[in-house]
Design a protein that fits this description.
single chain; 351 residues; alpha/beta; TIM Barrel; eight-stranded parallel beta barrel; two-stranded antiparallel ribbon; 38% helix; globular
Length: 351
Amino acid sequence: MTEPLKNNYPTRKLGKSNVSVTSVGFGTVPLAGFKAKASYADFENVIKAAYDGGVRYFDCAPMYGFGKAEYYLGHALRELGIRKDVVVSTKVGRVLKAASRVKKLDTVYGIEWVDPLPFLDTYDYTYDGIMRSFEDSQARLALDYIDVLLVHDLGRAWHRDEADIYWEQIRKSGYKALDELRSSGAVSALGLGVNETESVVTVAREFDIDCSLIAGRYSLLNHEPLNAAFAELQERNVSVIAGGVFNSGILATGVKARGATYDYGAVPEAIVNKVSALETVCEKYGVPLSAAAIEFVLMHPAVATVVLGAQNVDEVHKNVSATAKPIPGEFWAELKLQGLLPENAPTTRLD
């Protein structure tokens, strides 16, 4: 088992809000029944390990285990007595309803939760839908305030042909709900939780957001936000919460591991070849691939924090250890020289 390590992670503000998060956060997808069942005891042990390792930011959502992540996280924070020391984010845009009374959604990634709570999610970005989702989340978390509220999966990448329906909902009344929640003090920071950058830029031009959790769009394998999106978000003082820095697994396990995935699916041959090339450079400089994946994202000035997940305590210790690995500048220079990173990718530590 990997030995525990404590990091004193720096904190960074989320946009114009008064919320500051540690540069490394923790995501609860793996503990909500993603690929394997997790008991409450498992959940609490992992949260404690992350906290003991220096993490002070925890993210969840109604979608994760259809309420299980929120239900378990709130209880764990109370049992561990750490609520006042941490920042919590959850999401709106989905309302959970009894599984016996609604039809299962056909989603892009199609996650099959193992042993979820007996609910299913329905999309709703209206004023009433956002308010109900928020109040339901408060009840599941049993928290009297939520630090960061993110609009979940708004955009064409997720909703495809139905995207316009949900854009109309949030523009017509959803923004009003968000504004009321922030102005009343029910939440301290607002943003999006999505798998694309386009929708974040769109919303930032229409509504005053503080941050956005963007999963898998900026990583050692994906550099598209460098073209314009991150620069505009910086200009608008919208902080990026970076999720999916391992692209759902391949950048944590490498190409040789069984069951490696890329964005929750099979790994395309082009990605296999690129990861293999990255691993060769990592071996040359003695840099773990996972450490490089985390550090690369954190070096962009638009990024406030990276959110990492884990299914057990040992994985938490590995992640915490990876974030402490010093990486020489020559490593990043060689990645650029080999064309594995674009020249305009930031490769200097911010803290």
